[in-house]
Specification:
OB fold (Dihydrolipoamide Acetyltransferase, E2P), 12 helices, alpha+beta, Dihydrolipoamide Transferase, 7-stranded mixed β-sheet
Length: 570
């Protein structure tokens, strides 16, 4: 057995990032198996194993920055298992070393003579090449202010019959330098071929499904040529022939930023991964802070386009993506009419807004819910005793004012529940006021008007204000200000039924209380079972801001206040 060190090959110069290590120590890899995936600003590429063997050690990790010659890993291989490519590389390196050694042994005169001969040969070659078009995989056809060039497939690593899987432009389209023209796909990678110029697509010479190779015409582009471009193209030959000649006044007067680079834009290579997207799309996703797995693709063969990212971000901002959880596949659309008669009714604006808000809270907040039964027998006896007084005041005293008052006192006692997390999650914002929202069901949908300064108001005031807000909600007369500034929310299903439920927190609040229907249950008093009026309550809270101990203390204290309403006066 022998040990072989695998290094970073020539990847076009410059430093590149390691975005994925595909193997681990102890893995057995075959020749051409992917070892790591590199990514630069222009492309991502897989580095295959030159040999079959066992991984002994790994010298890189995700996020590392590497360049040509850096060690990737060490392989244990069978003796003599080196590939033909490796042997050829070794031979080439040996030949190169011998050549350098021979040159070093020559005397100075011979060296100078050889350099002179090389210079003469270079001058002859430049003279021959000067009338030819620039090397940009594009053939110049018009030499006016508006020039036309035929963009061809550049060197993509050899091979014939590379399939064109997508044509990204149409005749008449305006493109910018670097915009993708076509996408090619080989057995190993997909490649975006970008435009070397900004201009207009005059004609297309290729279509999806065609086979292409180096030199295959893609499209004819018409672009605005500048004087600076011609100066840049001709400058090298002139500089060699007349090294002391000053630059032309036209070229010197032009701003440097206007000069067009002579080298064409290189194709973008994208490795086969779980997500099919080009480097430009991946870079944009990183800027948006998105995981590409979340984005529904619309391109051919499930390819994610820039437009897909932009639409995804737009949907998030407008709440249109509320129908699915992040990263969870959408529920497929079903034609229900095939099973029988249906009636389709559009959701109201309020209903859609509520759905979006609830979905946002559910997917962003870690919900925890606790349940309890509270004995409100004495509270109900007191309510019955003041029924006539309520009729005189024109106010019905329901259990809600007592719940509001008890919650306000509990919020004062346990300020963590009267707080909100900052948007960055780095701090808690404690509120010195106590405003409580009450969930109201209306024909148009659910709304949550807010009662302000609950801790400063009497039971009668709370009863009157809650009734007034509920009626305004049903009459659709609530103003936006009436539904803002809440610290805590109470959602009651007492008049409907049920033994308990888990309400969704009304973010940016950190907790919400749910109330179900009162029930008479037997309770042991120490000597016998007696009937007591038990109120099922639940408390849902944001576990980022509140832990279980805090919730238990808050819930217990709230229950004690409702069991003995005299404690509300303490």
């Amino acid at each position: 057995m022998a040990k072989e060190t695998v290094k970073i090959p020539d990847v076009g110069g410059g430093d590149v990032d390691v975005i994925e290590v595909c193997v681990k120590v102890g893995d057995v890899v075959a020749k051409e198996d992917s070892l790591i995936v590199l990514e630069s600003d222009k492309a991502s590429m897989e580095i295959p194993s030159p040999l079959a063997g066992k991984v002994l050690s790994i010298s890189v990790k995700d996020g590392s920055t590497v360049h040509e010659g850096d060690v990737i890993l060490e392989l244990e291989v069978e003796a003599g298992a080196a590939t033909q490519d490796t042997e050829e590389q070794d031979t080439s390196e040996q030949t190169s070393a011998e050549s350098k050694s021979a040159k070093a042994d020559k005397n100075a005169d011979a060296e100078k003579e050889k350099e002179k001969e090389k210079e003469k040969e270079k001058e002859k070659e430049r003279e021959k090449e000067s009338p030819a078009p620039k090397a940009a995989s594009a053939e110049k056809t018009v030499s006016t202010d508006l020039q036309r060039e035929t963009v061809k497939v550049p060197d993509i690593g050899g091979g014939d019959g590379i399939e064109v899987i997508e044509v990204c432009v149409a005749e008449g389209d305006e493109v910018s330098e670097g915009d993708s023209l076509v996408v090619l796909e080989s057995d190993k990678a997909s490649m975006e071929i970008p435009s070397p110029y900004s201009g207009k697509i005059i004609s297309l010479a290729i279509k999806a499904g065609d086979s292409a190779k180096q030199g295959t015409a893609i499209a004819e582009i018409e672009y605005q040529a500048s004087a600076e471009e011609g100066a840049v193209e001709e400058e090298p030959a002139q500089a060699d022939a007349e090294p002391e000649k000053p630059a032309s006044p036209v070229a010197a007067s032009a701003p440097p930023s206007a000069a067009k680079p002579t080298a064409p834009v290189s194709p973008s290579v994208v490795s086969h991964a779980d997500v099919y997207a080009g480097p430009a799309v991946r870079k944009l996703a990183r800027e948006f802070g998105l995981e590409l797995e979340q984005v529904p693709p619309s391109g051919p063969r499930g390819r994610i386009l820039k437009e897909d990212l932009q639409q995804f971000v737009k949907d998030l901002a407008t709440g249109k993506g509320a129908s699915t959880g992040t990263g969870i596949p959408a529920i497929p659309e079903v034609d229900f009419s095939q099973f029988g008669e249906i009636d389709v009714q559009a959701l109201s604006k309020l209903h859609k807004l509520t759905a979006a808000n609830m979905h946002r809270s559910w997917v962003n907040l870690p919900h925890v819910t606790q349940f309890d039964d509270v004995d409100i027998s004495e509270l109900e006896d007191f309510r019955a005793s003041v029924k006539k007084e309520g009729e005189q005041r024109g106010v019905k005293l329901t259990p809600l004012p007592f719940l509001l008052k008890a919650a306000a006192l509990a919020l004062r006692t346990y300020p963590k529940f009267n707080a909100s997390l900052s948007a960055d999650g780095e701090s808690m914002i404690f509120k010195k006021y106590v405003n409580i929202g009450i969930a109201v069901d209306t024909p148009a949908g659910l709304v949550v008007p807010v009662i302000r300064d609950v801790d400063k108001k009497s039971l009668w005031e709370l009863a009157a204000e809650s009734a007034e807000l509920a009626q305004k909600a049903k009459d659709r007369k609530l103003k936006p200000a009436d539904m803002q500034g809440g610290c805590f929310t109470i959602s009651s299903l007492g008049s409907i039924g049920g033994t308990g439920f888990t309400p969704i927190i009304n973010a940016p609040e950190v907790a919400i209380m749910g109330v179900s229907k009162l029930a008479v249950k037997p309770q042991w008093n120490g000597s016998e079972f007696v009937p007591r009026k038990m109120l099922p309550v639940s408390l849902s809270y944001d576990h980022r801001a509140i832990n279980g101990v805090d919730a238990g203390q808050f819930f217990t204290y709230l229950g004690e206040l409702l069991v003995d309403i005299r404690r509300l006066l303490l």
